[in-house]
Every structure is written in structure tokens, then in C-alpha cells.
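During the reporting period, our protein records have gained a C-alpha cell line. A sample record is set out beneath this paragraph:
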Amino acid sequence: MKIKTSITALFLTISIFLNCQLFAKQGADTINDSNTPLHLLSPDYKIPYREWTGSEIKEVLDRVFLFLEKETPTLVIDTKTKKEITDYSRINEDSRLESGAFRLTTYEWGVTYSAMLEVAKATDDKRYEQYTGDRLKFLSEMAPHFRRLYEESGVVDHRMRQVITPHALDDAGAICAAMIKYQRENKDVNLKGLINSYMDYIMNKEYRLSDGTFARKRPQMNTLWLDDMYMSIPAIAQMGKFTGEQKYYDEAVKQILQFSERMFVQEKGLYMHGWVEGEEYHPAFHWGRANGWALLTMTEVLDVLPEEHSGREKVLAQYKAHVRGLMACQSSEGFWHQLLDRNDSYLETSATAIFVYCIARGINKGWLDVVSFAPAAQLGWSAVSTKVNGKGQVEGVCVGTGMAFDPAFYYYRPINIFAAHGYGPVLMAGAEMTNLINHFYPRMNDSAIQYYKVAPKSKMPIFGVDGQEFN
């Protein structure tokens, strides 16, 4: 089978070479349909568009990993003596977490912790799981001592305040979901105290609309932020998986459907970023990363929601409708735009990476058809890979962004390599693309990527659309 494929490739190479020699003699103006296979001419892609191997994807992920390993230390420092505190019972008002480029306690790092676990599973590289384990254990070991300090003096490192006394969904949801995922697989660590604290805030203390939908009091009273889907719902669904209690699954489904009823624009297949109760008109700015959080929410809920749950089909239908809307917005370079339906807004990395992950995940889980959707994920990953520089930094990521009522706000949000929002999504995208090419076979046909199902245990040959055997 491989010999047949090699012979075919050799024939095409020789054909192109001979025709190129003919062009050189006759002049470029003689190229026409009679003397050259025009469909074999190389496209002038702005972004490299090609097949990927698992090792190539891993090389990109490892660059990111090494950068993050260096920039996220697990140390407590006495700010007066500048020395490390190893006995956490000695933590006092002068104790601070060692500063790296990124904070260990934020929602962005909750995404990154989950992403590290996905890479570990996809590549069998235990360093990634250890990264998450080391930092979550570090936070859990310090938390009681910082809580004691806070109760005694009210003074505490602001990064640890998010852990011991969460005051917003941003403080709680993403990192709680990561802790549950890690706790489920690792019995040698006890994160249950922090998990229960986070979940108490999400379920019992966060502000809501009268029908129970999570809401904020800014910029107007009773405002929904699309971001809050991810900052709350996946953790709730994970809690259902962790405890087996139906109420958590029911709450997760209810929140998805109530957010979607208000914020999903059916004719575009996209979510608006904000919604204000009582307003007749809601500015429908389809911000990329917020749509990413929404799709990632549904993806993570579908991962753990029981097949027999009464709301599963509605969530799956909403997920598919959103994917279809996003497919129509992908740019020729493979990226999605900062404002999804405004092509003059800039191309943004974090949203693109989230969409790549969610689409690839949907294919691997059987929610989406591989033939129709995998090429978009492949193109998107090709784009994302170009934004990981030699140092492992992720470029082209929009910084933290609130909700606004005019387009200029979104158009001119800065991008920065230290915008933490990009790192977890890039790792997740690479992990799921690794799974995708392990389950399916990508192949260039007429310079376009197409995917085919691979049956690893079958000895039957698999043929491409041109009848060429390639398995």
C-alpha cells in the first residue's frame, strides 16, 4: 500500500518538474490548461496549510510548557527577608507568593490547569499532569494558613484572597473545575475543602436574576455576561460527575439554556457578549473569546452530562448550532476575528484556539461529522501554531475585556504576550488535535486538507476520494 502511494507521489513530482522545465523554456506567458496540470500549482497561502503529525504538534506544546514552567513558580516569600518560607505555619502579613509572569489563582490559570491535564492524556507526557498537580497541591497546602491570617488580621496576599474568599465567578469557576478534574483522577491529594468552598460561592452566593440565571450588577443592574457561562457552569457539571448528584447536572443545563435563550442570535449562530434586563435593544457585539467561553462551556458539559439526561439533546443541539455559526466566520488564514462577524477587526489567537479545541473535541466524541468539520480545525490549528514564538509565548491574544456598548471598545483592545487567556486554549487545541489525527487520517487532496476515518484494528485498505489507497 505504501509502495503504491510512493509511486503515485513520485509520478506527480516528475510531472510537475517536467512541466516547470517546459515553462522555463517557453516563458511564463505560455502556461495554460493544455501544457500544465494547473490544479497542481502551489497556492499562495498566508498561513502554512498542511498535514500535521503528533510530534510536530507536541513540539509546539512543549515550547509553551517550558515557558510556563519557568514563569509560574510555587514559592512563598517573606517580603522583608526575601527568603523562601517552607514552613507554611510561619505565614504572616509579610508573606507573598513568588511573582512570575502569571498568577496561579486566576480563572485563566484554571483553564491552563485543565489544559495541562488534556495534554498529558493526549501525549502521555506526565510532566503536564505534574505541572497541574504541583500547583494545585501548593495552593491547597497554603490555603489554611492564609485563611487563618485573613481571619486574624484581614491582610492577605490578594492572589490567595481569591482562593480563600472568592467574591466573583471569575474567582471560582474555572479553577474549581480544574481541581475537580484533578481530584477525580488523583486520590493522593485532598482538594475537597477548596472545591466545596468554591462550589458554595457559585451555587449559593453569586448574584442571579429572578429565574436563577447568573448575573452581574455592572455595567448595569441585572447584566448577563457571556463569559460567566464558563466561569460557573463547567464546575457545576463537574461537581455532578464528582458527587453523582442530579441537581448539579440539572443546574448546568438550566444555565446553558437560559443564557442561550437571551443571548444567542439564531440568524447568525453567534452569541452576543452582553445582555441587560429591561432593555429593548441589546448591542449584539459578537466578541470572539466570549463566544469561545460559551462553546467551551457546552463542550465540557457534554463531556460529563449523562447520556440519559433529559436536557442533553437540547444542549447538544445548541452546541451544533453555535459551531455552524462559527464555521461561517472563519477567516481565510484560519483565525477567527476579534468581533466574529466584522472582518475588519483583528485576527485573535485565544478565541481561535478555543474553537479549534471544541470542534476537534466534537469530532472525536462523535457529535460532529469528521468530513465536514475537521478541515476547519486543521486550518485553525495551523493558524494558532504560527502564534507560538520561539520562547513559547503566545502572541495575538486580546487582554482582559469587559462588556461594552460600542464597537470601538472591542476593535482597539490591546494584544499582549502576557495576556494569560491564550495559554490554556493553545494547549487544549494542541491536545485535541493530537487526538484527532490519532483517530482520523488527514490528507492533502488538490492542496486541500480532507479527513478520513481510520480503523486501527482493521486490515482493510482505506481509499481517498480519488481512489488512491493510503492506509
Summary: Strands lie at 76-78, 95-97, 223-225, 264-265, 270-271, 274-276, 336-337, 347-348, 440-445, 448-453. The longest strand covers residues 440-445. Confidence is low (pLDDT under 50) at residues 456-471. The two ends are 7 Å apart (CA to CA).
